[in-house]
Amino acid sequence: MDGTLLAEAFYSSFLYTLRISAVVLLTIYIVNYFVNKGLLEKISNRALPLTQKLNLNSFLVSSILISFFSPTVGYTMLADGITEKELTETEVLAGTLANSFPAVLSHMITYYVPVVIPILGYTGIIYVILRLLIAFTKSILGLSILLMISSKDERKVQNQLNNKKNKNNKTSPFEKTFKFARRFVPVMFVSMFLVLYMSKTGFFSIFSIIVMPVTDIFNLNPNTGILAITEIINVSAAMVMAGTFLNDGSLTPNEVLIGLIFGNIVAFSTRSVKHSIPLHFSLFGSKRGTKIILLNSSVTIVLDILIIGFLLMG
């Protein structure tokens, strides 16, 4: 093993774990503090007409709303819900799908609007709409599953809140946060260390090998494959390259969209390993975290493939 690579992976993992742990653990503490103070009950009372009509768990409603501002915090809410036995595994899986649109909308404001649209112009607007459409479809799928579950489950939202309030009064927010941190921090660090080390040794570069043959099979412009490979390496670099190809006429708007979405399929696989595994494993455990990653990745990839098929016919 290369000692330098190990040291770099260790240092980067340490910093990443500190940064993410600060956000997640602070969220866990704040959530439990305000739950003990009855804030979740007050929020649920405000949304009571909707939650009673849909019979959705208050943790699910809170997670979806919070994901508009911070997807990580939204996931943390789901993890806290299943830890407290207020959510079932099926509800958590469906909840992660339901959080898709709020999460992408949040990303649109911070990245797509200031970066993608100025670089790609009209094509960028179409690309953003397609990403939002995919996320919206995932959210509708997740909500549909949740509504089907709720139709078979006669639990009342108010009873859930009362039980939650009574339970949390027995345990301090600090105690609950500390208990969560004992599992979260070590798993996050170890997972991130392994992922970063594999990344630095070039393990993820093998994904680029499958890109060029696919462009040949579908008789696509070679620049489409180059664009897809670039997106695997760096998304912003791919956007700049796409803008260059558009401006010099190397690719049509349709080909740019195909290249970016195709690149997203392969890049999504690598990003799932690089980022999703450490976060999801530390929040939900390896078994449940794997299910969440596979479910969300599979649905996204299927929808991406359908859109590419539609663009190829255009």
Topology at a glance:
Blueprint: H1 3-36, H2 39-46, H3 48-54, H4 58-67, H5 71-83, H6 89-98, H7 100-120, H8 122-152, H9 157-168, H10 173-200, H11 211-217, H12 222-233, H13 235-247, H14 253-284, H15 286-313
Helix pairs in contact: 1-5, 1-10, 2-9, 4-5, 4-7, 5-6, 6-8, 6-15, 7-8, 7-13, 8-15, 10-14, 11-12, 12-13, 12-14, 14-15
Helix content: over 70%
- Oligomer status: single chain
Mean pLDDT over all positions:
79
Alpha-carbon distance between the two ends:
50 Å
Spell the H/E element sequence. Answer: HHHHHHHHHHHHHHH
Total DSSP E strands: 0
- Biggest β-sheet description: none
Question: Helix segment count?
Answer: 15
Structural class: mainly alpha
- Low-pLDDT sequence parts: 154-161
What spatial form do the alpha-carbon principal axes imply?
Answer: globular
What gyration radius follows from the Cα positions, in whole Å?
21 Å
How much of the residues is beta strand, in percent?
under 5%
Keywords: Membrane, Transmembrane, Transmembrane helix
Transmembrane segments: 14-35, 56-78, 109-130, 226-244, 256-273, 293-313
Protein name: Nucleoside recognition domain protein
Give a short summary of the structure.
By secondary structure, the protein is mainly alpha-helical.
What does this molecule look like?
There is one protein chain. The chain has 314 residues and is mainly α. It is 85% helix and 0% strand. It has helices spanning 3-36, 39-46, 48-54, 58-67, 71-83, 89-98, 100-120, 122-152, 157-168, 173-200, 211-217, 222-233, 235-247, 253-284, 286-313. The termini are far apart. Keywords: Membrane, Transmembrane, Transmembrane helix.
